[in-house]
Description:
- The chain is α/β, with parallel strands linked by helices.
- The chain has helices at 10-21, 36-42, 54-60, 73-80, 82-85, 115-122, 137-141, 159-173, 190-194, 196-206, and strands at 2-6, 25-30, 49-53, 63-66, 89-92, 97-98, 106-107, 127-130, 152-156, 180-184.
- It is built from ten helices and ten strands.
- The strands form two sheets. An eight-stranded mixed β-sheet has the order 3-2-1-4-5-8-9-10, sandwiched between helices. Strands 6-7 form a two-stranded antiparallel ribbon.
- Mean pLDDT is 92; it is low at 227-237.
Amino acid sequence: MDIGILGTGMVGQALGRKLVQGGHRVCLGSRTADNPTAAAWARGRGPNATHGTFAEAARFGHLLFNCTAGVASLEALRRAGEENLRGKVLIDVANPLDFSHGLPPTLAFCNTDSLGEQIQRAHPEVRVVKALNTMNCEVMVDPARVPGEHHVFLSGNDAGAKRTVATLLSDAFGWPPQRILDLGDISTARGPEMLLPLWVRLWSALGTPDINFQVAGVSVRTAAAIPQPISTPVSGG
């Protein structure tokens, strides 16, 4: 599959590395075509690894990842171009973290909105799925780094898109289907995004970023139970 990744940080690089290793073709996108970090990432990874602008990466990918800084994601997607995004599945792994007041970061917005919802509102023809944002990038691509039955959450309006994402998570990154939990429409992205302040505190308390969340004691809805697509996007406002 041709996959475009918007963002050249640790998350984008880790996802891209794993996807290329799995035989996918990946274009890492940034604001400029000559981004040195993206060029260094692509160098030596073979013909399946390329880099370019946000627009070039979005045009390249049949499926896209948003790995940009959450407070800059809408601008990055604007640069990517609606004509390059329209109709595609966009996996949003970003969090709207605000570092302007130092560490630990706070959320730029929460409770009544989420980054996933803002992206969906700004790009109604994009099939946005929030996923993978409750863990560090190494756990995203190797869930076995964390022992036990920890979970990855999906939020999105398009059931078909969520099934596509669940299949990719399982096949490319090794997430067992029973650990992929469908939370519902895109408004449910508020919950996973609001876990980030807790995740940051846990990292500090435990001394390791190899941590994640487990849902226990209830009958959970896995990706296999995702219903048929809804016809009207849910704004979640």
